[in-house]
């Protein structure tokens, strides 16, 4: 398996074969996934020659993909140093987390008051899958269930605009969430917090549901601060 700047991938796409989007789009999305997932850590150099070989495209095409990532704030391009993965802007993260807390605490209160019995049952099923993923050590599966757990709340209430706002915030926070999840005890802790949130909803207790959601998100904020102190090179600002 070929390793590209610390990111392992399979065989490169065949020239001319339709694999969904242009080669530039494919390179952009692959690099973005690697950065957001933490596979490419902050400060990791991006070797254009290796990515050209991987996607069978010109250096200009890879440069275009990298420039898009720079616009997204995920890559830094410096004339003398080249391109490398950007560090996470700590002040931005704090503001995104503040916005997420304000929205999700209110949403969960509405869920406890108005969510249908079927939607609550579906939330409970998600929770059961989370427990299984935690027990088996399936971090990727747990991450997907974690994201889905929060999505189910806005979807069940048809809060499309609120869901869109939260999706934007979560995208910005994805690198942080992926970084924290492998920390010892984090998946189990997240599952237990989700269980408490679910109980507040199932008991039709809006105040308790809000308290548990606030506790959940506040714990993430505290753990982020601890992580920053341990790994200052990942962040700036």
From TrEMBL:
| A GO molecular-function annotation | DNA binding
The cross-references to InterPro entries, in alphabetical order and at most eight, read:
GntR_C, TF_FadR/GntR_C, Tscrpt_reg_HTH_GntR, WH-like_DNA-bd_sf, WH_DNA-bd_sf
**Which PROSITE patterns does this UniProt record tie to the protein?**
HTH_GNTR
Q: Which UniProt keywords apply?
A: DNA-binding, Transcription, Transcription regulation
Q: Spell out the SMART domains in the cross-references.
A: FCD, HTH_GNTR
- Judging by the UniProt lineage, the source's domain of life is Bacteria
Q: Which residues form the HTH gntR-type domain?
A: 21-88
- Region annotation (Disordered) maps to 1-22
Q: What is this protein called?
A: GntR family transcriptional regulator
Say which species the protein is native to.
Bradyrhizobium rifense
Upper lineage: Bacteria, Pseudomonadati, Pseudomonadota, Alphaproteobacteria, Hyphomicrobiales
